[in-house]
């Protein structure tokens, strides 16, 4: 064995022995004063963690007393709706309702205007004759001879015309002459007139009158013919 290895082994053995000795010295008990007792700290109570839901036992079921069931409500049956084919439905026209109108108020019809007529014994035309006037010019000229101091009355010659008869001089105021009617015939108009005579014995001395009658009739272009009827005596 080489001397170098022997020396190393001896050194190592010496180190081990020293280390063992030092350990024995440090860990051997040595007498000393009695230790002062220290109270142990109170244990800290820690609540155990909750058990998982799956491990908990189910709570016992609560038994409740049976209660009477509420009265059942009457359910209205729905009204059945008849199905109507859309092709058979026709639109109903909406008729507007007219508002109520008050009853008509009776309004009397206006009376027809009285026929225009001028008659008497005070004319300035002293001869016997008949006239037919169809326009304003003839009317104004005639009236200036009939009543020279008066304006001619208004006559609508677009719708009417004037006919007249003159009896001539008579010896009493009771004489008169009247146009009775105007008859339309095919091709002409016939005017009937008659003179009225006073009763016998009524003649006055130095009295002279000129009876006449002028009347407005509907306008016509037909010729006018005058027809004198038998005189008529006035009854007392």
In short:
This protein is α/β, with parallel strands linked by helices and 236 residues long. It contains two helices and eight strands; from the N terminus they run αββαββββββ. The chain has a domain at 117-233.
Task: Chart the SSEs and their pairings.
Blueprint: H1 3-27, E1 117-120, E2 129-133, H2 136-146, E3 160-166, E4 176-185, E5 188-197, E6 212-218, E7 224-228, E8 232-233
Parallel strand pairs: 5-7, 5-8
Antiparallel strand pairs: 1-6, 2-3, 3-6, 4-5
What portion of the residues fall into strands of 2 or more residues?
Answer: 15-25%
- Per DSSP E runs of 2 or more residues, the count of β-strands stands at 8
Portion in helices: 10-25%
Order of helices and strands: HEEHEEEEEE
